[in-house]
Design goal:
Elements lengths: L7 E3 L9 E3 L7 H17 L8 H12 L1
Antiparallel strand pairs: 1-2
């Protein structure tokens, strides 16, 4: 994911090893959220997970548009 411009780290505490954290500095806007989700989708696809690219980005767009 770092090659896609997104820095992640392992989860900590009681959920250690069950997910990841996204690094950021300062304010985060909608474009940052969409590009991060897109990078996660692309990385998971590259690792062999079966998913339709863009579906999670679209879900985030729908959620943010309705809030």
């Amino acid at each position: 994911m770092r090659k896609r411009g997104v820095v992640v780290a392992s989860t900590i505490g009681p959920i250690k090893g069950q997910g990841f954290r996204v690094g950021h500095m300062g304010n985060v806007n909608q474009n940052d959220i969409f590009s991060t989700i897109g990078a996660v989708e692309a990385t998971l696809t590259h690792l062999g997970y079966k998913l339709a690219l863009g579906t999670e980005v679209a879900a985030a767009q729908d959620k943010l548009a309705s809030s």
